[in-house]
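Fig. S4 source data, part A: sequence.
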Amino acid sequence: MPDQRVSVRWAEAGDAAAIARLLNALNVYVGCEDGIFTEAKVLDHFFGERKVVSVLLAEVGGKVIGIATLVDFYNSDRAAFCLWLNDLYVEEAWRSSGAGRKLMAASAKEALARGGDSLWWGVLDENRGAIAFYDRLGATSDEAHILELEEEPLRSLAAEA
């Protein structure tokens, strides 16, 4: 029987297919388009010239079962560097295995290592399981809303500049 202990490590370019698989699964889970991540897109976006995303992977017995994607940001409310957790996903069969907590712990450690004073992320209101998980970690909500401009509204506003 393979080792059932969860370990977390930094992703490498050779993990591109696993990263694409997990991020596509996350998209399906939250009701977004499936299949938008390809191995080529992951290699370009996460390991190419414009690399701005750091990726942590959770493994069990050499099988990648979870992912956290991280980006640096600056919080002007606190005048401090912070880390933004863009994605956190663990395959359904491995939820409650400790993988999510280990990915969060590694993300928190990285926030401190980069000189940050906090780790931030968003969660969909309807994702009650995730909210309960984050509550158990001691996370607080500042009641902020995460907003987005995309497609035509983005282009229209940009045309005003």
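Fig. S4 source data, part B ends here. Residues 99-113 form the longest helix (15 residues).
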